[in-house]
Every structure is written in C-alpha cells, then in structure tokens.
C-alpha cells in the first residue's frame, strides 16, 4: 500500500510499504477513508535530521474496518471508525482517569511497527479500546468535522477544559492555527462569552470570529500583552489557551493570564523552561494541559458534531489525494493552507 | 511600642516605634497577643541588603481589638481576633473568588505605613474584611493552633487544595519545615491515605508521621526522585506539595509527580524558571498554587482546630518574648528551632 514517509526536513515521500495484517488478537486493520496533516507534523518537516529509514507519518484518521482480531468484540468488518491520535487499551488506570495518552499498554502511530495515519491502511493495536464507531455513512458530509475529533478539535477542547473555561471565565486563545481556532470553538461551546484570539492572519482570525472570538489581537510579544491587558481593564483573562508551543507563546500566556487564572497549553512544547518565579507565585497562576487525551472526549463531543451544532471541519481549507501529500506539507509550512484533508 | 525591624541579613532588632492609631474609618488597632516567625522571614534574614531605614517584620498574629474605626461594624474593642498574612477588603471580585492575596484594595504587613505582626500592636487596614473573630478566651490553650491559621497551616492547606488532594490521591510533600508538616496534616485532613514526606531532619519527620505521613524519604535530588518512584511502583504521586521554594525542590516536584498529576507549590519561589518542556507536556503535568489566600480558608478550618481534630500548633517548638526575637530568628535559621512562637 501507499504510505507517507518523512526522510528529513522538507523531504516527504509517498512510498509503497507492506500491507498491514493482524498481528495480535487485539488488532484491527482499518482502510483509511480520510486523514490529514497536523500542525505538529510541521515541526519535523522543519527540522528533522536526515534518516535513511525514514519515519511513517500521520496520526489522525478515520476509515472502514477491513479485518478484526478475535479479541475485538465491539467491531465488525465494514464498520466506519475513528481513531484518536494515540492508541490505548481504554481500561488501565490512566485510561479510566481519562488520560489515554499515558495508557500503560498504548502507544503512538507510525512507530514500533504500527502504521501511520497518512497511508492507505493502518494496523490498529488495542483496537477495542482505541476505535470509536461513527454513526454515519462513508460518504457523509460530516466526515471532515468527525475527523477533527481524532486530534485537532479534541486538542482545542483539552486546552479549554484544562484551563477551566466556563460561562463565567474570560478567555484568550494564543494562535490562529487549526488548534487555536478549534480552541475558540471549544471555549464558545463551553459557554465563554468573551474570547480574545491572538493571531495575525486575517483569513484565519475571520474564521475564529465565526467560531466565537469576540476580539482579535494581532500584536505579538509585549505589544500583544499590552493589547490583551487593555481589553480586560488591565487584568488579563481567567483562562489562556496556548495553542502554538513556542517559548514566545508560553511567555505571553503567562503574562496575560489574570491573577488566580490558568494557562491551558496544548501547543507541542518546543521550549524547555517556563518563566514561573516569584511574580507568578504571588499571582497564583496555574499552568496545565499537555498532549490531549482525545479518546476521553470523543463520546462527549460527537453529538454536537452529529447535530451540526459545531463544525470544526471548517478548519480544512484544502483537500488532496495521496500524490499531493508532499505539496500539502509544503502548503501548510508556507501558511498557504490552514489544514490539509487527505482523501485517498 | 516595641516592634521587630530587620536592617539586613542577620541583623534583627527590637526597637521602639510610634504606637499605631486609627488613620482611616476602615482601620482597627489590635494589641498583639501571639505572633511568630515565618520560614519566609528567613529569606531576607539570609540575604537582605543593608538598609538604613530597616524593614518592619511579621505577618502572622492574633490579638485583642484596642480601637476600631467607624466603618468596621463587625468588631468591638476587646474582641480576640486573628489576622491572615495579608490584609484585604474581602468584598472585591478577587476576594469573592477566594483570592484575597490579589485583593484590589489589600496589601501586606510591615510596608507602606502598616505595622508588622512582630510587635506590640498593629494598625489593621480594611479591618472588617481582614480580621476573623476567635471564639475563645485570650488565655486559651488553642491559641498556638489558631495562630497557624494566619499563615502556616493555611499555606499547607493551600498546597493540598490546589493540588487536588482527596481520599483517592497519593501525595508527596517536599520539605519538613513548618509549612511542609502543615501540608502533611492538611493532606491527611482532606482524606489522603498515602502521604510521602521528603525531609531529612528526623525530629521533624517524626512529627510529620504523627501528622499523617506514611513514608519518609530522606534522600534529595535524583536519589530522592528514585526513592519516591520506588515507593509508588514507578509512577510517582498524584499530588506533590512543594513546601520549600528552591529550584531543587520544584525540579524534584516535577520529577516525582504522576502523569496527569499536579504540583501545588507554596514554598516562596526563589527560582525564576521551572523545567516544563516536552516531557511534562506528554505527561499532562499541572503546576499550581502560590501565595496562600489564608483569609479564604480560615472559617473552613477553624472548627477542626476548635474541636481538637487537628493540632497544627504543634509546629511551634519554642516560645519566646520580645527580647529574644533576634535569637529566635537565629535559632530558626540554624535549624535549632522548627517554628518560634512570640508571646509579648
């Protein structure tokens, strides 16, 4: 089958790899119907050292069950299923606490003999715990929005949930990428009425306004901090959803959060330290979040997607086939595309 | 009256200062019955640059109302009252949220014309919001435990509350000072059954065991991390209460918290940065806490002190008069005394 392999920064290729087969009774094989490129894929696309073996890419996909092991009683061949961006048994203590990203028997896509999502098919370990059946047909117009439950919308939701967003909290979202826009949508869904979006790409912040942002701050750094403080009477906002992952973004988050408030970070951390000394101590600031346990949120978010109350799939502004995957990476890296949907 | 003034590292003197008088209708004047020296007083005692003017010391006290302004309807001359370690109006939005340390009209003791607690009397601004009436006589044996509600026990409680301690969480407390021991007691009070105390002074950790610690780890640094991990099957604990404030302590806290867990920090932060990069991102670690809003907790904790369910006053291992205050500082700095009670 065809699969996406990255051999180093800027070098993504579609290549033929062995078709996946069941290896364990807990496996399933899923034929991919829709996949996508993640903002986090751009980090290796920008900086990955050259590799002879390459790295299988993709961790967001939905598709049709093609084969199923004997220890996967909940799924049948032909089921349309969604995979969250890590696989997990969904029964261990971490999973029961809603932290499937730390599952004792789980792991990531594209490593250790597990396929990536940007390919024609995927062997899914721990399929019973990992997969979620989708109650739609394979040609449903809801597929793009359902696909966001694999990662990007759940990641925005995780930022909002971990930062304690509710109808009484003011919110700033840092970053107008797909995760940031999903964080706006998630904060609005949780009832926030004042949502400041910090981003400088007008086409993206315009979609952010449609998702629920009430204010847009285009400035960065100190000017951005000043702008958010001015919008909030000097206080900053109760919740800050950090959706970029750079040092500048997390520094800004800490500078604009209100005393007693919370930074929910979901941008893949490219920094090693956060400034969290005596000033933040006096202000009782919290930093939380991390990699989103999407599996914990899918059932809760699915009805709102099914009923059309939210349309997170609007973050996809380009749909490509496999032959265009390398160009899709480049388009996202060049900020020509917000998020790329792959339909094999 | 006599008051404690620090003129630089190691230089604490008892000096005569003007008697406090009402300046605002919202003031009260309180004659101090019991005060104490705080672990946080040891930071300037170790490093304060020499000052001609000096710094008024003390932020924990209880006493008898001696004079009261016209805008303080809830108190009368003769009332025995407790003061939390910052003063606050207890009506602004921050106070209503339980963050009196960020009160819009509040401040600290010993600065800006407000007396410190280590003296014969104190002018209390915003007295109606700040003071709490104590339902005991001035010669009650409960006074030491009641005095801990001014700061040290509420600070330990804040660590436990902000870290989400409950009967289902395992807990590590870093630090066997008075705050750390109070954090053990607070965690036990909140139902924690497994409480690991990281400390290396046996007399202190022995009191920690009486307060509820189930395990003691005397090792520090990497060995301390390994010891806590070994005690917890490799996982670390759900909650880590950081009660020291050094870089080493906060680094250790992050290394021993379980995936998805929370570090509640209440040690006055002497560090500027915390290591909070990709590893902690993947583990969904939270850092929270800060300076404790004692005022928010006093009413909740008071009954357990009154009924003798908890005896946080046991952290006081020495009682002195004013003439011994400089020696009291030295005793605490030399670790000869855990916490010093001052009875004028």
Automatic annotation (TrEMBL), chains A, B:
Protein name per the record: IMP dehydrogenase
Pfam families xrefs: ADH_N, ADH_zinc_N
UniProt-listed PANTHER family: DEHYDROGENASE, ZINC-CONTAINING, PUTATIVE (AFU_ORTHOLOGUE AFUA_2G02810)-RELATED, ZINC-TYPE ALCOHOL DEHYDROGENASE-LIKE
Matching Gene3D superfamilies: Medium-chain alcohol dehydrogenases, catalytic domain, NAD(P)-binding Rossmann-like Domain
Top-rank taxon, per record: Bacteria
Origin species: Dactylosporangium siamense
An MF annotation (GO) of this entry: oxidoreductase activity
Boundaries of every Enoyl reductase (ER) domain copy: 10-342
InterPro entries on file: ADH-like_C, ADH-like_N, ER, GroES-like_sf, NAD(P)-bd_dom_sf
Assigned keywords, A-Z: Metal-binding, Zinc
Cofactor: Zn(2+)
């Amino acid at each position: 089958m065809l699969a996406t392999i990255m051999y180093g920064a800027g070098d993504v290729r579609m290549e033929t790899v062995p078709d996946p087969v069941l290896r364990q009774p807990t496996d399933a094989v899923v034929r991919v119907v829709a996949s996508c490129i993640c903002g986090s894929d751009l980090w290796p696309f920008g900086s990955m050292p050259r590799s002879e073996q390459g790295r299988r890419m993709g961790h967001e996909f939905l598709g049709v069950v093609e084969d199923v092991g004997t220890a996967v009683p909940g799924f049948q061949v032909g089921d349309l299923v969604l995979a969250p961006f890590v696989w997990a048994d969904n029964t261990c203590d971490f999973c029961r606490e809603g932290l499937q990203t730390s599952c004792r028997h789980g792991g990531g896509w594209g490593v250790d003999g597990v396929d990536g999502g940007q390919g024609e098919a995927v062997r899914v370990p721990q399929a019973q715990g990992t997969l979620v059946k989708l109650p739609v047909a394979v040609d449903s117009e809801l597929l793009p929005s359902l696909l966001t439950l694999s990662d990007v919308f759940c990641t925005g939701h995780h930022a909002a949930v971990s930062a304690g967003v509710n109808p009484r909290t003011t919110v700033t979202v840092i970053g107008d990428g797909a995760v940031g826009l999903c964080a706006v949508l998630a904060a609005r869904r949780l009832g926030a009425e004042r949502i400041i979006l910090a981003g400088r790409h007008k086409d993206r912040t315009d979609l952010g306004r449609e998702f629920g942002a009430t204010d847009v701050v285009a400035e960065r750094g100190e000017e951005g901090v000043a702008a958010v403080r001015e919008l909030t009477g000097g206080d900053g906002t109760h919740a800050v959803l950090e959706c970029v992952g750079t040092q500048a973004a997390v520094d800004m988050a800490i500078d604009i959060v209100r005393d007693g408030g919370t930074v929910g970070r979901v941008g893949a951390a490219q920094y090693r330290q956060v400034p969290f000394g005596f000033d933040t101590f006096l202000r009782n600031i919290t930093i939380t979040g991390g990699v989103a346990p999407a599996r914990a949120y899918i059932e809760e978010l699915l009805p709102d997607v099914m009923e059309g109350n939210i349309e997170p799939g609007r973050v996809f502004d380009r749909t490509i086939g496999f032959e265009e995957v390398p160009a899709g990476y480049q388009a996202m890296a060049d900020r020509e595309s917000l998020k790329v949907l792959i339909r094999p």
